[in-house]
Amino acid sequence: MSGHSKWHNIQGRKGAQDKKRGKIFQKLSRDLYQAAKAGGPEPDGNPQLRLVIDKAHAANMPKDNIQRAIDKASGQGGANYEEITYEGYGPAGTAIMVSCLTDNKNRTAAAVRSAFSHHGGSLGSNGSVSYMFDRKGYIVILRDGLDVDEDSMLMDVLDAGGEDMRADEDQFEIFTQPSDLTSVRDALQDKYDLDTAEVTMFPQNKTAVPSDKVSQYTGLIDELDENDDVQDVYEAAELPESAE
Fold first, then answer.
1. Which member of 84, 118, 177, 201 has the lowest number of beta carbons within 10 Å of its beta carbon?
2. Confidence band of 39 (pLDDT split at 50, 70, 90)
3. CA-closest candidate to residue 93, choices 220, 225, 193
4. Confidence band (pLDDT; 50, 70, 90) for 52?
5. Which of 61, 62, 183, 84 has the alpha carbon at shortest distance from 130?
């Protein structure tokens, strides 16, 4: 029995690792698609695509998976993918935006609507919560192995056309206007290795989730994250410290 139990534990760990790896590959596939869609499928002429390909290689993503994601952006492989954003309210009225990439809008809409209803939320109409978010260019530079102080980095960011910077012991976070992301990224890429460079959404304010709603709220976010059609979930929620 002990041998069976040991094998069962090994299987469980492997299953969790495979699931985590699958989610990483899924996210990278979406990033590859978006980069190729925005700047073309040739990495030599698309710095953002080169950045994501490098990240995919570092994560040991198979070359076939990388190429398949790029092919989707150029309409190859027989499937036509469409980007759709859903807006809704989670438990306690928290604003949530769900960015999806799908080849079947009906399937995706039904799944997103079901996730909200399962966990005490509801879908809203277009524009119902998007005004509560700011769209920004976002760049991350990791500090590990980097010999530069915050003042020097800020000067480089401002010289490159960046809007603002936030620093902690692990990383520099750089914010730009969405239209300036490419030029700021290219300027900083000449001096630093970039971990992230994307346009994303930031909440203007956050709604506190009461402790009795935390389980509902996290259940909703988990269900959305598990959906293969969901690219990103943008939240305007603040959880109690004990739940973070």
1. 118
2. confident
3. 220
4. confident
5. 84
Contact 95, 236 (CB under 8 A): yes
Look at the alpha carbons of 94, 99, 102, 106 in this order and tell me if their dihedral is positive or negative. Answer: positive
Tell me the residue length of the chain. 244
State both tokens at 159: 């010289």
What mean pLDDT comes out for the span 137-154?
94
3-class secondary structure for the chain?
CHHHHHHHHHHHHHHHHHHHHHHHHHHHHHHHHHHHHHHCCCHHHCHHHHHHHHHHHHCCCCHHHHHHHHHHHCCCCCCCCEEEEEEEECHHHCEEEEEEEECCHHHHHHHHHHHHHHCCCEECCCCCCHHHEEEEEEEEEECCCCCCCHHHHHHHHHHHCCCEEEECCCEEEEEECHHHHHHHHHHHHCCCCCCEEEEEEEECCCEECCHHHHHHHHHHHHHHHHCCCEEEEEECEECCHHHC
Predicted local confidence at residue 69, as pLDDT: 87
Q: Provide the pLDDT for residue 224.
A: 94
Q: How far is CA 33 from CA 100, 124, 132, in A?
A: 12, 27, 27
Tell me if 224 sits within 8 A of 230, measured CB to CB. Answer: yes
**Which amino acid is it at 210?**
P
